[in-house]
């Protein structure tokens, strides 16, 4: 497949930027939904927060970001009110809070709340940062001692947040903040194109393509002139200016190679994941690990010795042959332009002509060695001596006379081309043993080259590029489909990107068709290896190996581009999805309910009653996402074959889903919210009492609201059951 441009669509990398920036320094943070006024539910929690508090991610998601499940006896009521006020006012807050872990142990932390805006300036998320300062603020410390270290500890935490928010702010060049502890700019939650330096050259740009063709021509020039200078010019008088008429062009080519090395240090490349890498340091490391040393050796400026009139020996000419390593780049060009048959044929013909040129140089060296030898038998019958006699310029004393260099080169090239393409014509022939051995070798090589280049060009292209041919055939079909049906530009881009990305992952190979003829045992083992990430989820821990093997055969892979909807609200849920890479957001009525990242599981729990599961929200990709999914139908079939695990799966899947898409599962959010061991019984009773009063008044005044009342009654009943609180009498019906 030809070199791809890479994945270029704008992405929402907010989650990745936060995770990468906090990694290893201060990774305890939450993201809360600022648009959901009912408790500001948590839409993302970091692994560091889970380690700090002891809660699982599934236990934290969708709870209120006020973190009342972390409150306890020593949590200040004043701090609670300040946090609520900051959330209501959509402004920042910093404070020292005493929280409680899941096991009941208290810990002190510095809490920072930062509102996050989108491109419209609306606050959509809250960033909660937790800095553990238990060692500095133990229970044994006095209040005065706490204040002494408070400023230093808070400055450390705010510095981390400052550096984070700086990633999202656009600042003028050369402008530095007056103080590192000044109020930082707020980060933005939005889709944005990748920002790159203007000194970075795009590998797919037109200017880079023209430069590559120029370097390709320079490479061919080197492949022609270096053997010619080594074999022909080295035997001429070093002080003869005519023998080094190419000094200026040789120096120019060396400068081009040196400039090409510099440009390669500033040229983007496509990573193994398909992303275009713009980072200068990554480009530097990638180039140093691939072509740098070969390019450096080929760019050594040997010709500057001639420019400064420095006497050189034949060894210098031989050292210049290392420039032929630059021809390895030709393989890369062949791969890039393999989709163009005319270019491939031209390059093959050029390689054939280049081989003939190299053989002509070797043929001339053999003739020179025969002339310079002291053997009286072979000295006078060599091909070069015969040529000199025909041109009436014979050699005298092995050094004087002989044909001119252009005549000798033309005769050598004529002999090699006639030998490579046929059996020769005899006017330039081999006479000595060395010449005959070389003629035999060149004839054998010519037979092979003739068959490869002239006889089987089409067959070679089909054999070498069969997969590429299939790729271009399918790509042409897609483009014809787009043209015939006049699809808009957005759909066209989505189709092409999806096809290119999936092709780069599987190279057009259908795994099911490929493995169809293999034994079931081998197919299951291969499927388990390919899907080992999703099979290592806690929900599958109790499954037998046979069950896992059956599940692995039904797991499929899919790809989602930024901005595409994976699931629409109200649709029938077809599969449960596991996020292998990238990030997605769960939306309902324009509000962010959850942000999903690598390792998250999204779908719905299975019940025997509901054969069709309706979804309660949209799932939209923020970045390029690789997903694995298993259809609901296949999952039911496998669980039916293993009923002992099916019942366990039905109870465990609810706790392993990062977000439950089942319609009506919103009420379960209240259930999960009420499971915190630190939730006060008084607050629960007060909440139930208020709900009962509202329901009573609603039933008395508006009989049409019975459906809403029934739903709320069900939620309150769940709260009663979970918290073991005696139910009160209902007012009205």
UniProtKB/TrEMBL annotation:
GO CC, any one term: plasma membrane
Chain ranges of the PAC domain: 93-145
Residue stretches making up the Cyclic nucleotide-binding domain: 539-656
Record's keyword terms, sorted: Glycoprotein, Ion channel, Ion transport, Membrane, Potassium, Potassium channel, Potassium transport, Transmembrane, Transmembrane helix, Transport, Voltage-gated channel
Subcellular location: Membrane
Highest taxon, organism lineage: Eukaryota
GO biological process terms held by the UniProt record: regulation of membrane potential
Bilayer topology term: Multi-pass membrane protein
The reaction(s) this protein catalyses: K(+)(in) = K(+)(out)
UniProt domain PAS: residue ranges: 14-90
Secretion signal span: none
Record has Transport as a keyword: yes
Any one GO MF annotation of this record: voltage-gated potassium channel activity
Subunit structure: The potassium channel is probably composed of a homo- or heterotetrameric complex of pore-forming alpha subunits that can associate with modulating beta subunits.
Function of the protein: Pore-forming (alpha) subunit of a voltage-gated delayed rectifier. Activates at more negative voltages, exhibits fast prepulse-independent activation kinetics and deactivates much more slowly, but shows no inactivation.
Family: Belongs to the potassium channel family. H (Eag) (TC 1.A.1.20) subfamily. Kv12.3/KCNH4 sub-subfamily.
Protein name (Swiss-Prot/TrEMBL): Voltage-gated delayed rectifier potassium channel KCNH4
Biological classification of the source: Eukaryota, Metazoa, Chordata, Craniata, Vertebrata
